[in-house]
Amino acid sequence: MRTKIILFGLLFSLIILPSASSQTKKSPKDLPQQYRRWLEEEVVYIISPKERDVFLQLESDRERDIFIEVFWKQRDPNPNTLENEFKKEHYRRIDYANNWFGKDSPGPGWRTDMGRIYIILGEPYSIEKYESLTEVFPTIIWFYQGMTEYGLPNAFSVVFFKRSGIGEYELYSPIKYGPQFLLPNYMGDPRDYESAFNQLLKIEPNIASVSLSLIHGESSAYVPSPSIASEVLLSAKIPAAPYEKVKDEYAEKLLHYKDIIEVDYTANYIESDFLLEIVRDDSGTFFVHYLIEPKRLSVEQFGQKFQTILEINGQVSDTKGNTIFQFDRTIPIELDQSQMDQIKSKLFSFQDVFPLVEGNYKFSALLKNKVFKEFSSVEQDIVIPKPAQIQMGPLILANRVQKDPKDKRSKKAFLIGDIQFVPSPRNDFSREDTLYLAFQVYPLNEELRENGFLEYSILKQNFADTEKVLSFAKSIKEYANPINFYEEFALKDLLPDYYIIRVTLLNKNKEEVLSRENNFYISQFASLPRPWILSLPGPPPDNPVYLNILGNQLLNKKAIPEAKALLEKAHRKNPNSPEFALDLCRVLFMVKDYQGVKSVAFPFYRNQGKNEFLELLGQSCQALREYEEAISYYKAYLSHFGTNINILNSIGECYYPLGNIEEALIAWEKSLELNPKQENIRKLVDSLKQKK
Questions:
Q1: What is the pLDDT of residues 284-329, one digit of tens each?
Q2: Cα 220–224–229 angle (5° rounding)?
């Protein structure tokens, strides 16, 4: 029996979103009728501005259908049931509004003020009607309470009245109208709210009580002026209530990735928390450490086994959008019942690490659950600094550590020196926790190593300034490692609140050289949910695979000499690696070292049958005018990999200088059959045929 299990975790999002897509934004009138009706009638009061903006940028009906499906999924209070209770209730409210409101207006009920408020807020807790008072225009008061989760006051009223005593009920605003507009016979100063209020108080105290403020208990004493907070309630808080709890970043993600991921995934975006830090290795190489914590992880149950397959697609691009590095990870997950029992109520944290050369980049990653077609995405700018001047790395805050881990020789995310740190992307702690701090300073000169200090401060964040609650300094000589620094802070004496931790490097005169800070908060809860971690251990730091990765990154940056040096070094350290050899051959070919290509590539082809070297061998021989040898490699390539236009053209280019026009024509004509639009090849073939 197969069952879908959803593992839930508690989190809030700290993701910085990418800029909106550059696609052309349409006008609603340009949409097909059913989508215009959906946007401007059915969901007009509950769609967020961001969702609306994205919907107007979609280009096809298929994309709009997917968006609408995701729109309702984001609002489904119980995704484990077939019925979407929110959607059902929303359309019930529309039907109710059309049946009961708008009888005195030319339009349907959903367009009226009463219809709009009913669709947004639903059934009032109570209704008071004053429609027969001769001294007050017809007035209806709807009272609501217990809606603070939507950003609304705990208790408030919404008032409707018939201005001038006729027509449709309009929404009453204390700022826009005031009590004087509720009185048919008011003859006083229109700006005299106190006089109008007192007159209304004598006629009907319940109406008077909401004429200046809609928010119950806003003030204990009467202030004869309309409530600004009530206007904010009407103009901002109530309109935003339908999407207060909706994380509408999914809309931007859908727009951003709709042409990248498979269609099956687009309706299943999952929010994630994300943390990325840059850490310098002992060798001087910078590594990107990152983690992704999705809001949920779905696994499939087969008897007593729980499994799914995750796929990570990562990409690093430079400021011009050129890809510098990309990677794919496929991770099968299989848990037994005891493991499932331990982690089913926890967050899931995927953690990974990779090296990166100096420069400014944008990092993006897709996390896909291949079984359930769910995806999450993260993006962040990265700066890998130049090594010349002294600098302090990021302050990494962890809620637990493992000192001297068993697999410390492996390269793992947030393994710094011989300490494995476990950070949270939210920097959240309880008072029972210890805050573990790690950071780096590099390069430290001899003067600072001998006479410098590190000052640590914890500051409480206030509205206007900060209050220092802890501070101490230590000599740098007290630390065994002059690059990796580590401190522990017990939090039991700090109250729940938001804090800043700051580290300052001081010279011997206690003058600031540089500083770094990070934010964290202490929760009111005694303990916080912590994730189960899936971290992929990599090879040891001295493994040449990192030289090879960095060399290819430099190659993509067009830093050819630097790339060549690293790729040669990687090959020397592991001369039996076909991958390292192939990458080296590519850069050797770029610098026109064709003999170098042959000397590296030929043993892999001859001794190991590595056919991936055939094209480079053929191209190098062709460049050296060793045409017959080149032809043999090209033909072996076609025999193994199948027809290739470029290889056929190269064969023709080799036969031609050998004077074998017939074979050259055979190759080129075959190439033209595959792509007739090669004008240069066609002209050459026609010219040769005329000379025959």
A1: 999 999 999 998 888 888 888 999 999 999 999 999 999 999 999 9
A2: 65
Residue 579 host element (H or E) = helix 578-590
pTM score: 0.75
d(CA 350, CA 310): 10
Query: Could you report the per-residue pLDDT of 448-477, keeping only the tens digit for each?
Result: 999 999 999 999 977 667 889 999 999 999
Checking DSSP bridges between strand 305-318 and strand 359-369, what pairing results, if any? Answer: antiparallel
Provide the CA 162 distance to its chain's centre, in angstroms. Answer: 48
CA 666 to chain centre: 53
Q: In what order do the strands lie in the sheet with 428-429?
A: 428-429, 512-522, 497-506, 453-461, 466-475
- Residue 83 CB: number of other CB atoms within 10 A? 9
Q: Which of 359, 376, 270 is nearest to 323 (CA)?
A: 359
Rg (CA), the chain: 34
Structure tokens at 634: 């090209």
Q: Which of 317, 242, 226 is nearest to 48 (CA)?
A: 242
Instruction: Provide the CATH number for the domain around residue 658.
Output: 1.25.40.10
The DSSP code for 21 is: P
Q: Rounded to whole angstroms, how far apart are CA atoms 358 and 386?
A: 6
Domain hosting residue 684, numbered range: 545-691
**181 found inside a domain:** no
* Alpha helices (H) along 427-577: 446-451, 545-556, 560-573
* Bridge partners for 13 per DSSP: none
Query: Could you report the per-residue pLDDT of 82-131, keeping only the tens digit for each?
Result: 899 999 999 999 999 999 998 888 889 999 999 999 999 999 999 999 99
CB atoms within 10 A of CB 490: 11
Integer angstrom CA distances of residue 590 from 545, 584, 585: 21, 10, 9
356: left (phi over 0), alpha (psi -120 to 50) or beta: beta
CB of 325 closer than 8 Å to CB of 354 = yes
Distance CA 255, CA 258 (A): 5
Let me know if residue 652 belongs to a domain.
Answer: yes
Lookup: tokens for 168: 């449709």
Residues 6+ apart with CB under 8 A from 336: 304, 305, 306
Assess if residue 644 is contained within a domain. yes
Cα–Cα distance between 161 and 172 in angstroms, integer?
6
pLDDT tens for each residue of 614-670: 999 999 999 999 999 999 999 999 999 999 999 999 999 999 999 999 999 999 999
Total number of domains constituting the chain: 1
Residue 21 domain-assigned (yes or no):
no
The pair of structure tokens assigned to 183 is 């009185």
Convert 164-221 into a string of H (helix), E (strand) and C (coil).
HHCCCCEECCCCCCCHHHHCCCCCCCCCCHHHHHHHHHHHCHHHHHHHCCCECCCCCC
